[in-house]
Amino acid sequence: MKPQLQRPTSAFIGASWLALVVGAATYLIGLWNANMQLNEKGYYLTLLMYGLFAAVSLQKSVRDKLEGTPVTGMYFSLCWISLAASLTLLAVGLWNAQLAPSEKGFYAMGFVLSLFAAVAVQKNVRDVATAGEHRTPADTRSEA
């Protein structure tokens, strides 16, 4: 299967970055203002970082497989397990947290938006890099 070499639009790139910034910022601002112990705040901060890494790593592994780059089954499985673990740990943490239901929903939505946006941003970065590698000399002359 041959990968598409189409560059994403500037609007999609901007929307992806905006979603990542909004998702992560709202999650972090909510965490900063939360009335919880510092160790709880650390738990939720670590989950966000772990979840973002797991989502981006999984997206990269899927893309590598699509493009024919070897990805070991163990690494691919660990990516899925890590993403599932971060979501499960967030769900368990929010279920047991002494927070209002609206706050729990706020954290869950900020987390999921951040994960989705991180995947979109990573895809855009890779698409832009791939499209740049496959440009012809005629493409560069027409831009001058």
Automatic annotation (TrEMBL):
The chain crosses the membrane at residues 12-30, 42-62, 74-94, 106-125. Keywords: Membrane, Transmembrane, Transmembrane helix. This is Inner membrane protein YiaA. The keyword Transcription does not apply. Residues 12-64, 75-127 form the YiaAB two helix domain. The keyword ATP-binding does not apply. InterPro entries: YiaA-like, YiaAB. It comes from the Bacteria. The gene is yiaA. The lineage of its organism: Bacteria, Pseudomonadati, Pseudomonadota, Betaproteobacteria, Burkholderiales.
